[in-house]
């Protein structure tokens, strides 16, 4: 087996770097329009259509029925909202992640951990033996 100088130190550095990267919070950024621009672009009909489309999904419709809301009650409450409130609700619908999980991120994290364990075992010369 060829010994590379400082391999153990490099391996520990990589473990530390991956740990730090893993605990760093995910940050999403973007441009935020000013209120004057946002108020001028309010289209009540388009926003109501967007909200109705979300309300028509099976999961949300069933949940609202369990809570005791009829379609007429929902429509009457929506009609009581101002244009700005309707627009804010329509914008917030994009942030909903109903039934969506970050399974790909979990799989990638598990693969990275497995690869690091294999590398560390190889560098230290240890072997994993499974016997019956």
Task: Walk me through what this model shows.
Helix content is 66%, strand content 0%. The two termini are 29 Å apart. It contains 7 helices and no strands. It has 132 residues and is mainly alpha-helical. The protein is elongated, with a radius of gyration of 26 Å.
Question: Layout of SSEs?
Answer:
Layout: H1 7-23, H2 35-40, H3 44-55, H4 58-66, H5 71-80, H6 83-93, H7 103-124
In percent, how much strand structure appears in the residues?
under 5%
In DSSP terms (H or I, runs of 4 or more residues), the helix count works out at 7
Element string (H = helix, E = strand): HHHHHHH
Please report the total strand number as a whole number.
0
Taking pLDDT < 50 over at least 5 consecutive residues as the criterion, the unreliable ranges are none
Shape type: elongated
Profile the largest sheet. none
C-alpha-based Rg, rounded: 26 Å
| N-C termini distance | 29 Å
Give the class from helix and strand content and strand pairing. mainly alpha
Percent range for helical residues?
55-70%
Average of the residue pLDDT scores? 78
């Amino acid at each position: 087996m060829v010994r590379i100088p400082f391999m153990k130190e490099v391996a520990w550095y990589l473990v530390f770097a991956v740990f730090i990267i893993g605990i760093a919070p995910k940050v999403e950024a973007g441009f935020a329009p000013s209120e004057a621009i946002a108020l001028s672009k309010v289209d009540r009909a388009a926003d109501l259509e967007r909200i109705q489309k979300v309300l028509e999904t099976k999961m949300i419709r069933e949940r609202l029925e369990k809570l005791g809301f009829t379609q007429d009650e929902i429509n009457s409450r929506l009609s009581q909202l101002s244009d700005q409130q309707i627009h804010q609700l329509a914008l917030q619908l994009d942030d909903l992640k109903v039934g969506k999980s970050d399974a790909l991120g979990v799989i990638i994290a598990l693969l990275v951990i497995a690869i690091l364990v294999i590398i560390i075992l190889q560098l230290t010369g240890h072997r994993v033996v499974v016997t019956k």
